[in-house]
Write a structure and sequence with these properties.
CATH architecture of one domain: Distorted Sandwich
Order of helices and strands: EEHHEEEEEEEEEEEE
Distance between the termini: 139 Å
Shape: rod-shaped
CATH superfamily of one domain: Glucose Permease (Domain IIA)
């Protein structure tokens, strides 16, 4: 190849066995290009290896995030179950509260529990962990305090029921309308000039007027007594009994449960009496008491037919 500068070319010879020789003249820049291409190929391989490594790392991170989300989903489910149980307890407390308010004659409370907070945007794993930790602490505190509050309210309801039952049984309702004509204690006998002990009070009233129970209780006597004539005796419990004497008619029988203010007899003058009136007697643990200590208000203030 005349005219070709040998120092700028390289000769590549292929010598097949028994055949003609093939010569290829490659310019010097061809090898330079080959080197550059090889370098670029190496760079591309390194970049590809880096990309694969980064991708694998990202996949591992996503798998870790998925595992965290799965754990937190289980924790959220557990918290929801705890919240549901607490809600049932709180509902029971609300029912007890309403029961106590009903017993006391109070209206419903004006306060309302705050509603469930709306869920915000998606949190990062670290923020989710912190939020769940705070919620768990709050629920744990509420769960710890709720049983104590429930026990206190149950105890309050029980005590209020007992107290209200006692107040309802207390012989404090005036059994008949009228003034007290003869007080409790020593007095001049209406049947002579001697002094005698009066074991109750006499309430003046018209013949046939309605006599009401002074408190809740059970009739333990309904019949004739030599001095008091037609008589009713009510056992109110708590060691208290009340007696209603000189009636003209009895409206209840032995064993009946009577309510405060319920008609039980009619005023009369049966037995040892000088005229129509009600003899009212109260005993505590079988000891005579002044009935005026139990009757509400002044003389006749809470008498039959009037609201106390």
């Amino acid at each position: 190849m005349q005219g070709i500068r040998r120092d700028r070319y390289f000769t590549l010879m292929l010598v097949p066995e028994g055949r003609r020789i093939y010569r290829f003249f490659l310019p010097a820049w061809f090898f330079q290009v080959a080197v550059v291409l090889a370098i670029l190929l190496i760079i591309a391989l390194i970049a590809a290896i880096g990309a694969v490594y980064h991708l694998q790392k990202r996949v591992a991170e996503l798998r870790a995030v998925d595992q965290i989300n799965a754990r937190q989903a289980a924790q959220i489910l557990q918290l929801e179950e705890q919240a549901r149980a607490l809600q049932e307890k709180i509902q029971g407390i609300d029912e007890l509260d309403a029961r106590v308010r009903s017993l006391l004659g109070l209206g419903q409370g004006g306060g309302e529990r705050p509603g469930v907070a709306s869920r915000g945007g998606r949190l990062r794993p670290g923020e989710q962990e912190q939020t769940l930790k705070q919620v768990r602490l709050i629920l744990s505190s509420v769960a710890r305090d709720t049983p104590r509050q429930e026990v206190k309210i149950k105890e309050l309801a029980r005590e209020m029921e007992q107290h209200l039952a006692y107040l309802a049984a207390l012989p404090s309702h005036w059994p008949v309308r009228g003034p007290v004509s003869s007080p409790f204690g020593y007095r001049d006998s209406p049947f002579g000039r001697r002094e005698e002990f009066h074991d109750g009070i006499d309430i003046a009233a018209a013949y046939g007027a309605e006599v009401q129970a002074a408190g809740n209780g059970r009739v333990v006597f309904a019949g004739w007594m030599p001095i008091y004539g037609r008589t009713i005796v009510i056992d109110h419990g708590y060691g208290l009994t009340s007696m209603y004497g000189h009636n003209s008619e009895l409206l209840v029988k032995i064993g009946e449960q009577v309510a405060r203010g319920q008609p039980i007899a009619r005023v009369g003058s049966s037995g040892r009496s000088t005229g129509p009136h009600l003899h009212f007697q109260v005993k505590l643990n079988d000891q005579l008491q002044d009935p005026l200590k139990y009757l509400t208000g002044g003389e006749g203030a809470g008498s039959a037919g009037e609201k106390e």
